[in-house]
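Hi support team,

I submitted a single chain yesterday and got back a structure, but I'm not sure I'm reading the token output correctly. Could someone confirm the output below corresponds to the sequence I sent? I've pasted both exactly as they appear in my results page.

Thanks,
R.
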Amino acid sequence: MLGFGLSIEPQLWTLVFTMVRVGAAFVAAPVFGAVSVPVQVRILLAGAISILAMNARAIAAPEQIFSLTTIVMVMGEALVGLAIGFVLQIAFAAPLIASELIGTSMGIGFAQAVDPLNGRSSPAIGQFLSILLTLLFLSVDGHLILVDLILRSYEAMPPGAAWLSPDRLRNIAFFGGYAFLAGLLLALPVGFLLLCLNLIVGMLSRSAPALNLFAVGLPASLAVGVVALVAAMPAMGDYMLVMVHEALEMTAMLVFG
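Hi R., thanks for writing in. Yes, this is the structure output for that exact sequence:
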């Protein structure tokens, strides 16, 4: 009897209460929160993982449904879940920042494509790097680590008493700067070569003012950019793997403090 006056099993309300944190994490997290993943699949996954969490931890639903305490508890659960998924989403924004730098220097910043992960238009290079980062995330079992962290968060931050401290919120904000730094470092190999090319084209324009820079500079930037991407791809892949590990470590730090 939880406020409706109906004989509903308390386990059902416990499942719904547990799904708040899990569902919020899946909405904000990469891969699980992709537009291509149907809502029904997310609900089924959230329900299945919530059942595992209920069996692994002692979770109790609020005694009263329509009360201020219950609303605050639900808000706290949603905030914890969103924070866990949002930290990983920050790392997945770095390839988009790198693609903006590379695409603008190559002269193909106008090349846009629909990103299947978020449903928005993004640079073609950014879509390629995002897919590569997603594959690396799955290759190191990042999705399983995320599920494990969600389950272990019920022990570190018990339901009903879970609320992010100002220190943890500040760490999330500071980790947002990591996306800009990671994007800059990811674009550094290709961007440095394109910068050198632009300096050479600039010197040529000063020495030969009659030279058509658009007829020479744009094809040269595109060719050098493609060659630089192919040459720097192993190093970029290794650094994106480091980004995945950094994001998972930051998520664990958020959960355990």
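A quick pointer for reading it: The mean pLDDT is 81. Let us know if anything else looks off.

Best,
Support desk
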